[in-house]
Amino acid sequence: MVYSGIIERHHIIPLMRMARCSIKRLFILLIVIVVLLFITCFSMLGQSPSGRAGVSDKAPLRAPKIISNPQGQKPIFRYKLERELEKLMGQRLTPNNDAERAEEKRGYALNGFNQFRSDRLPLDREVPDTREPKCLSKHYPSQLPSTSVIIIFHNEAYSALLRTVTSVLNRSPPHLLHEIVLVDDKSDHTDLGVKLDNFTKLEPKIKIHRHSKREGLIRARMTGAKAASGEVLLFLDSHCEVNLGWLEPLLERIAINRSNVVCPVIDVISLDKLMYSTIRGPPGVRGGFNWNLQFKWKKIPEYEQKRRGHDETREVYSPTMAGGLFAIDRSYFFEIGAYDMGMDIWGGENLEISFRIWMCGGKLELIPCSRVGHIFRKSQPYSFPGGVDTILIRNNMRLAEVWMDEYKEHYYAKRPSIRSRSYGDISERLELRKKLHCKSFRWYMENVYSEMPLPLENLRYGGYVSSWRGLIKCVGVLL
Ligand SMILES: [Mn+2]
Q1: Quick one: 71 exposed, middle or buried, by C-beta within 10 A (0-12, 13-18, 19+)?
Q2: Element (DSSP H or E) covering residue 268
Q3: How many domains does the chain divide into?
Q4: 72 — pLDDT class (breaks 50, 70, 90)
Q5: I need a labelling partner for 302 at 20 to 30 A (CA). Which of 125, 178, 292, 423 fits?
Q6: Alpha carbon of 33 to ligand 1 centroid (Å)
Q7: Helices (DSSP H) in 122-215: which residue ranges?
Q8: Which residues does 336 contact at the CB level (< 8 Å), separation at least 6?
Q9: pLDDT-derived band of residue 389, with 50, 70 and 90 as boundaries?
Q10: pLDDT of residue 471 exceeding 60
Q11: Residue 385 Cα, ligand 1 centroid: separation in angstroms?
Q12: Which residues contact 441 (CB under 8 A, 6 or more apart)?
């Protein structure tokens, strides 16, 4: 058709037909594009980027990541060279015959670390001062709250337990150390019986409580907390060595505000050589978690470094704690609901108390000038009655149901089949949350852990398509 400036009537009808046809085609094309978009979107989300799909809850070894150094630097502190150490000790630290080799093997199997060597190292050995040099020039008030150190154990290696206790006695100012409360969660190792009783009798500050049946970490800690009479409760694992000046920086933060809950920085005692070491420089990590509800070490974000004024000696706000080592004002601990007594044995309780502290008005902090060495075991040496998975899932469901509001869906999305499982009665914990006027989980995510991405990979065909927010976000990402 030649353009003439005038559209004649006989031209108009085919034009209208053509227009109608193009609208139809355009419409079909649009539908095809949308369908393609959705397919791409879902197939992308269906693949879990790190192959994490269907990951089941496994007992996470506490804080293994801290061993790896983000800068790839070698540990700067080594205890002593093997030979020097042996000379000092007057005995060998490695097995020399079949009987000793068998003993070493047994020690590993029982503890997940080198008990053979632990038994031969001095209880009061020196450890390298791993603090930042700037920490040494800090001054702390001499009047600080008195402390009950609570150490719970179940079949711990006798020498590792005693080394923990000895380091606390040697490196805590006596006027600040009110007592050491040991809680034996029904151990059956013979040397943890009378032999331990005899040792504890030597030091009036040590008190020991024994369970007549295995209760697990959570209830054992409650036994310790109820028995303690210091102003601060300080929970320690039973295979630690506290470092120089470890206590004052923790207590100072609690003295400033009783709702500050504080954790020392964890140094590494190697499980084979039992060498005490740390990574160079200030701690670059703080506590986080993933949607499997596992604790994770995460890089401290820039906004938090800014809040600290880039001062390496200052406290780091931490969204979660690893769980083994922390200090809390005793009355505050009970005020905010201690532990969820409906949880079993171990697992999930560290995230539960972390969420609760932040959501109910407290703060959770890492204190760089306080250092405690910890043996990171090779494996969990003791059994979980009823199975690890069953207990962890039940504990995590209680955690999700009480504290995580709509965000609990991110946990369930990966394991839809557990929804129907029983997690017991949570009414008391919901009541507690109401009574304390705790904030929402959304508030926590937006204000405490804002760098945490929402899990797009949770969206699946069958599992979690009901989240329209997720769907819109998904399409938004693609466009
Ligand atoms: Mn431990």
Answers
A1: exposed
A2: strand 260-269
A3: 1
A4: very low
A5: 292
A6: 54
A7: 133-136, 158-171, 194-201
A8: 356, 357, 360, 362, 436
A9: confident
A10: no
A11: 19
A12: 355, 359, 403, 404, 405, 406, 407
Compute the distance from residue 165 Cα to the ligand 1 centre, in Å: 14
Q: Note the pLDDT of residue 21.
A: 56
Cα–Cα distance for residue pair 211/266, rounded to 1 Å: 28
The Cβ of residue 145 has, within 10 Å, a number of other Cβ atoms equal to: 18
Does the pLDDT value for residue 5 go beyond 70?
no
Cα-to-centroid distance, 61 and ligand 1 (Å): 8
8 lies in some domain: no
Integer Cα distance of 376 and 64 in angstroms: 7
C-alpha 374 – ligand 1 centre gap (Å): 7
- CB neighbour list of residue 299: distance below 8 Å, 6 or more residues apart: 70, 284, 285
Ligand 1 center from residue 322 Cα (angstroms):
10
382 vs 115: CA distance, rounded Å: 15
Say what the alpha-carbon torsion angle 332, 334, 339, 340 is, to the nearest 10 degrees: -120
Give the residue among 144, 122, 377, 321 at the shortest CA–CA distance from 245. Answer: 144
Distance 145 CA to ligand 1 centre (A): 26
pLDDT tens track for 375-388: 998 776 666 666 77
Only one residue has tokens 């060595």, namely: 241
Predicted confidence (pLDDT) per residue in 393-414, tens digit:
999 999 999 999 999 999 999 8
SS3 308: coil
For the segment 133-159, the average pLDDT, to the nearest whole number, is 95
**CATH number (domain holding residue 131):** 3.90.550.10
Q: Is 333 part of a structural domain of the chain?
A: yes
Distances (CA, A) of 220 to 57, 160, 255, 299, 345: 23, 19, 26, 32, 9
Mean pLDDT of 116-132: 90
Can you give the pLDDT at residue 414?
Answer: 87
Q: Is 139 inside a domain boundary?
A: yes
Q: Which two tokens stand for residue 100?
A: 């000793």
CB-hemisphere CA count at 13 Å for 45?
Answer: 27
CA dist., res. 87 & res. 83, Å (int): 6
Residue 208 lies in a domain: yes
Residue 377 CA to ligand 1 centre (angstroms): 7
pLDDT tens profile 241-275: 999 999 999 999 999 999 999 999 999 999 999 99
Which residue range forms the structural domain that includes residue 299?
64-375
